[in-house]
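call fold(seq) -> C-alpha cells
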Amino acid sequence: MKKTTLKNSSNLTKRLAKYGALSAAIAGIADANGQIVFTDVNPDFAGGNGTSYALDMDNDSVFDFGIIGSTAPAIGFYGALPSNSWVGSNPSFKYPFALDSGAVISSAQSIWYGGTSNVGTLNYTSCYNGIGGSNWCGVTDKFLGLRFQIAGNTHYGWAKLDVSLSGDSFTVKEYAYNSVPDESIIAGQTELSIDEFAINKVKIVSLNKSIALYNLPQNTDYTLFDISGKSVLNGSINDQTYVIEANGISNGIYVVELTDTYTKSVIRKKIVL
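ret:
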C-alpha cells in the first residue's frame, strides 16, 4: 500500500494501526459500483388529449415526472416533487429542451425548471408559428434532460419521446438514469463504458488525517480541495491502493477529486478530516 505524506511520522506502530483501521473500513464497504439504470417502455406508451404518463425514473412506484395531454392541443410536463426538474428555456412557459442523442446531461446545464408549482409545455397550440417549444413538434427519438432525487442525492437521467407534428400526441419509449449521485449521463446512454465503470469502482475512506483510496485505475491523478475550492494537495498514483497522509492539513471538510489519466473520467467525494 503506497502513501504520500505532508508530515513524516516517527511512530511506526501508530501508522500501522491506522492503516489497519482504514483497511477494516474499506472491507466493510459494500461493492456498490455505478451503473446506468435503463427502462424500456414495452410496449411504447402512446398518449394524447386526456391521457397522462407517470414517469417513475427509479421504478420505486413513486412517480418523478408527469406528461399530460390537453385540448389546446399541448403536451404538459412537470416534476412531481419540488426537487425534480428538467433542462429547458423560456421563463414564461418553461419549455423543456428536445435534446439530441449524445447530449450531456449534468450539473453543467445552467437552466433547470421544475417542481410541483411549475408546469412546462413540450409545445403550445399545435406549435403555433413555431413559438417556444416547437422543437418538440414533429420529432422522433428526442430526449428530455432530467434531474431528480433519490434518498436526498441528486441523479441525472433522460427520457426518449416522439411528438406528432400537430403537437397533440406523444409516445414514451424508454428512460434511464445514472445511479451514481451527481454524475452525468449522456442522452440515449444505456450502460457505462468500461472506462467509466473503472473510475466508479473507486472507494474513498477517510480516518483521522489519512485518506485511503481503493480500486484505483492504473494511473490516477488526485487533488484535495478545501471548502473554498482551493487545491491544498495533489499528486499522481500508479497503484490500485493508496493512502494519503494529510497530517499538515487543518481539520475540516474537503473534496477529493480523482481523475483517470487515460480516460479523463472523474469522481469526487466530500470527506471530513
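Residues 36-186 form one domain.
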